[in-house]
Amino acid sequence: MQKLKHEPAYYETTKFKWRQRIGFGISDYACNLAYLLANTYLLFYYTNCAGLAAGAVGFMFVVTKFIDAFTDYMVGAMIDRTDTKMGRYRPWMLYGAPVLAVGMVLLFSVPTGWSAGAKLAWAYVTYVIFSFGYTLVNIPMAPIVSSLSPSATERTKISTTRTVFSNLGSLTSSLFVLPMVYFFSGSKDATGAALATGYRNTNIVLGIIVIVIMAICVFSIVEINPPTQSAGKSSLIKDIGNLVKNKYYIMFLGEVFFLFLGYLGMYGAMQYYYTYIVGDVSGMSLALTLLTLLAIPTMVLAAYLNGKGIAKIKLIQFGAIVDVIGYLILFFTSNGTVATASLGLIGLGFGFRSSMFFSMMPDIFDYTEWQVGRNLGGTQNAIQGFVNKLSSAAASAIVSALLVWGNYDAAKLDEAISKGVDIATNFSQTHTAINFAFGGLSLISTILAIVVLLPYDLDKKYPQIRADLDKRQNKN
């Protein structure tokens, strides 16, 4: 059982609150470094450096999710039953970080001299290790927000700080990953084994950064508002039955799937788009910078507006509409300048969406506890994490399938570019596949993300729910 070291008044000070916000926020900086590395660069690495077939890789992304389904639930259930001097959630974040870092390195260390079958087996095993490490670190990060503060307003500020740092992680990735890869490769024009070495060494550096940041996070924050109810003995069937009773959680899972399907599909196709459609991969850094940097002011604005009484659901839907406009432009253009500007607009919309997305999660977890009398935050976030990973796998699989449909051949395309051949004219089907993967998939997914949250009205009910939970806590 965790014991607080200070008097209650200390935990109400502005200094402590900012320590909680920033200390927790940096955790998603580390997570996003790992997350975007896998979702932005891994498919390109597999096809262009490791020499794996796009179809086989897409199938691998889907198959490994069945393993994730088991590990995610087991970790979530174990978290709900954890009770240590460090609290319920922090130990998982601390000890999971080295596993995640090792997984990052192994992902981008496919032995290029091996046979195709052996390389694919390496991809399967190392992707499972990476996913398990991400599970250990990430699943506690949503339910811990409820433990960091009992105040809904303060939780929104904590969640907003998290999303700001998350985007700073994305910004770091956009500004430094490719330059680091080229530095370790020895040349911007490096290909094959040399480029593969660049990716591996980049991940070694970033893996160390992830471990250090997670350690700082864990020892900076305090779980001052532990769950009011112990999870106790239960079963998978009973837990799932309790979660199904929460209609808002079901809507939220739909939102998770479509939100990340569109966003990660765009990320997965981006390097192909700027390499073969725009013809200048260096333009990708500016695009990623705008996408991540412009989201930060709208994250802060969303938190401010929510504090002024505007419902979270209205802010997340507004951001989605802005994104729809950006994806529409993206879908109908092959111009690099227009595409980059569109990504900036998408970043503005995504700032509203991501800030309120993370702020909604503690409310939904509290609703489950209010309904069934048991805190299942770890299990809920485990299932949400699995849906997120399933969405990521679906995005990669769809992009891979589009590449297969488009007869994608990296060697032929690289040769054509070196000879000045027009890709749009001479590889029209490949051109169409990449363009649709980059914009079309995201457009459809964002529209569906708007639809699944139309019945959501928890914002109106939450104040009374929180009051009831506080009464229960005071009786304990």
From TrEMBL:
Membrane-spanning intervals of the chain: 21-44, 50-71, 92-110, 122-144, 164-184, 204-227, 248-274, 286-305, 325-352, 436-456
InterPro entries: MFS_2, MFS_trans_sf, Na/Gal_symport
Keywords: Membrane, Transmembrane, Transmembrane helix
Domain of life: Bacteria
PANTHER family with a match to the protein in the record: MAJOR FACILITATOR SUPERFAMILY (MFS) PROFILE DOMAIN-CONTAINING PROTEIN (PTHR11328:SF24), MAJOR FACILITATOR SUPERFAMILY DOMAIN-CONTAINING PROTEIN (PTHR11328)
Record-given protein name: Glycoside-pentoside-hexuronide (GPH):cation symporter
